[in-house]
Amino acid sequence: MAETDQVEHEQISTSLEVEKIDVNLFRSKSLWLPLRARGVFGGASPATPIIYSVERIRDGKSYVTRSVKAIQNGQIIFMMLCSFQKPEALQPNHQWPMPQAPPPEECEYQEEKYRRLIAQNGDGMSPKVKELYEAIAYERSRSPVAIKVALEHDVSADGIVRYMYWMRARSIPKYDAPFQKCILGYASDLQFIGTASRVVGLRRGAKEGQNRLGMMSTLDHTLWFYNNDFDFGDWVLYVAHDVVQIDCPAVGSGRAVVTGRIYTRDGKLIAVAAQEGVMRADVRPPKQDAKL
């Protein structure tokens, strides 16, 4: 069951944990209901536990593959394909370097940014925009993942638009590597498909028309890990003091594709992400005059 008044950063570890009820069968312990949302994170109903059914696809010497179906009220609401690999430390390594970005100490928390915008421009804002900014600031301050904007709408010489964010877990105990990956997988969806809306200038608070965001939702999400040596909850050696660089290759037909790379603070590449999502402008066809 979901608790609508729970503080997310105190519940996130519980929300990610599952209860084993049979061989290859698990059940959610707690579902978190985001602020102003109709469903839990991922869109499912907050009233019913989610059952996770695991199918063992392949067990090889170096790789194993699992299929996971999330089921609620007898319907599949989510499917995931997981591939696990034994470490191969002696293999050659290569990574794209972390791009230049200001250190997190010089960047502003997202909640502080929206509070600053309200303080500076609140008198000139419409009530709906002000309410939206207040809600975003409130939700970001309660999130288990703190976010600071490192760079917004950076356009490279070849025309690629990039956004960079510093991300850090607020108060998560030290876990082993598999659970760290679960938490990072959760965080990798934050601020991701929304990059595409910003690339084309869609905003939730805009007036009705071409630049008003009508709907945005994830269709599919892929994450490739290349580093197991990180701690998403350690405030000192924290890998979540990382920068997520997001590119947006394409937007069209109400869909968008974004890609990203997640680095540790000292520049080690942790993971590469890609996502496609629904992104629709609130555009309505012109009214037709009634015909006699």
From TrEMBL:
It comes from the Eukaryota. Signal peptide: none annotated. GO terms for biological process: acyl-CoA metabolic process; fatty acid catabolic process. Residues 162-279 form the Acyl-CoA thioesterase-like C-terminal domain. Residues 34-85 form the Acyl-CoA thioesterase-like N-terminal HotDog domain. InterPro entries: ACOT8-like_C, Acyl-CoA_hotdog, Acyl_CoA_thio, HotDog_dom_sf, TesB_ACOT8-like_N. Keywords: Hydrolase. One of its GO terms (molecular function) is fatty acyl-CoA hydrolase activity. Belongs to the C/M/P thioester hydrolase family. This is Thioesterase II.
